[in-house]
Amino acid sequence: MRWYNVSTRLAALLLVGALLLPLAGCAGQTASSGPVVLRIAYRPSVVDLKPLLEEYERANPAITIETFELDGSNFPSLQDEMQKGKIDIVREYRSTLYTLVRNGTFEPLQGWVESSDWGKIRDDYFTGTWEGLQVDGEQYGIPAGLDMYVAYANLSAFDAVGVEPPADDWTLDDLLSKAVAVNQPEGRPGESEGIVYGFGTYYMSADPIIITYLHGGALVDDFSSPTKAYLDDPRTVEAVTFYSDLTTKYKVALKSSLVSAYFRSGGISTAEDQGYCALWFGLFSQRGGGTTVYGTEADWEFDWKMLPLPHDAQDVSLGDVDGYYIPANAANKQEALKLVRWLSDQWQASGDRFQVRKSLAENERYQDQLGADVARVGALAAENIVVMPLFYGRMGAGGALSSFFSALFQIMEKGDDPLMVLEQAQQEVTQMLQQGELEEEPTP
After folding, report:
1. Which residues of 398-420 are buried (b: 16+ CB within 10 A; e: fewer)?
2. Contact (Cβ atoms closer than 8 angstroms) between residue 131 and residue 16
3. What is the pLDDT of residue 346?
């Protein structure tokens, strides 16, 4: 079996579990013997937990629940509150908490999970969700919601030129042909009417990584703990060539310099939100627009459709999982874990993320809330997900992302040969990985 086979890639990319010292006690759903105040920190922009928390309070009269609502500015205050033992549960992106896990801010949970009734439902979770919340092989988070890449089609743009949008079983070749058919790029956004770019993308995004993995290529063997790079693998080279050709050869995507000139800090996501792109890859949670990363509202004012990612050598989606964490200094760990266990049974607790549990994803009320098409595409993506952090920054994965994006810039902006550039990038990353291994070896 080749290394880029789906099952092999999943096994290589997901973190491996390990047993930890158990927490005392086990989780039930009975009320505490005395009054308890729990404080839970979460992002209202991701999920509105208040109705569920009020329901839990009514069922458990000895429990009072207070909330700490996270936004883009108060994370330092959360850290202070955790250090003082005033936060019992944190629901958050794992990328935000990664450093805090490493410095002992959060409680390892494997022992508690094994001593409670989690075993009854562990198999109900989508593959990779639990492993994605491990750090150095230790379980620190309980899965709460999935966010994975899907594709979007601007139906209004397709209707304007009389082209049928892609069907669910579309391929990378269909991506190219549909993008060419609908492409109307002449002029400058805001100054010319009818501008549509066939494919909205930016080279320093997940898009070239997604296409690489769809085609059966890879960047490294394990995003969390890379030991080997695959930047010069033939399938990686083919995928990068296809991706770069979308801009340089077929001109269905904006050059990076024009993205900056036309849309400034908002980048290509602004072009997508404003209806200038016919097709693009985006996160499940971004459906319909809403609050952007800059805190502004950008509801889509065009008809749209969510699609699975295109088919190619393998069906795969990249995605991430957020979770519930228990601070090491929490005053009420056992009651906090009981609440987390209860929330894990509620389909509403996924918020704008996709459900982490298969049975809840199939819940009729949940599917009605999402819409049948969105629920179906979300389930397909969740079944084929490779869990990886979505917010690495350029230097992530042992420096592989930095070298990969630099290679793309040379190919797309300077016209350099993809094979030559990626072979050079392979050498750079291999050297960085070897140096990392040497630095970790004990000094004689």
Report:
1. bbbbbbbbbbbebbbeeebebee
2. yes
3. 97
Q: Which residues contact 214 (CB under 8 A, 6 or more apart)?
A: 172, 239, 309, 310, 311, 312, 313, 314, 315, 316
- Nearest Cα neighbor of 221 from 229, 210, 231 is 229
CB atoms within 10 A of CB 4: 21
For residue 66, which amino acid is it? E
Residues 57, 69: Cα–Cα separation, whole Å: 18
> What pLDDT, in 10s, does the model give residues 13-35?
332 222 222 333 333 334 445 69
> Dihedral of CA 267/272/275/277: which sign?
positive
Mean predicted lDDT score pLDDT of the chain: 85
At residue 207, what are phi and psi to the nearest 5 degrees? -55, -50
Q: CA–CA separation, 143 vs 357, rounded Å?
A: 9
Would you give the DSSP letter of residue 264? G
Nearest one of 249, 325, 305, 310 to 88, comparing CA atoms? 325
16-146+320-387 CATH:
3.40.190.10
Task: Indicate the domain borders of the chain.
Answer: 16-146+320-387, 204-249+392-434
| Higher-confidence position of 326 and 434 | 326
CA distance 245 to 239: 10
Residue 349 tokens read as 């607790």
DSSP character at residue 4: T
| Cα–Cα distance, 161 to 279 (Å, whole number) | 14
Amino acid at 228: K
Is residue 398 a contact partner of residue 220, using CB atoms and an 8 Å limit? yes
User: Left if phi > 0, otherwise alpha if psi is -120 to 50, otherwise beta: which for 55?
Assistant: alpha
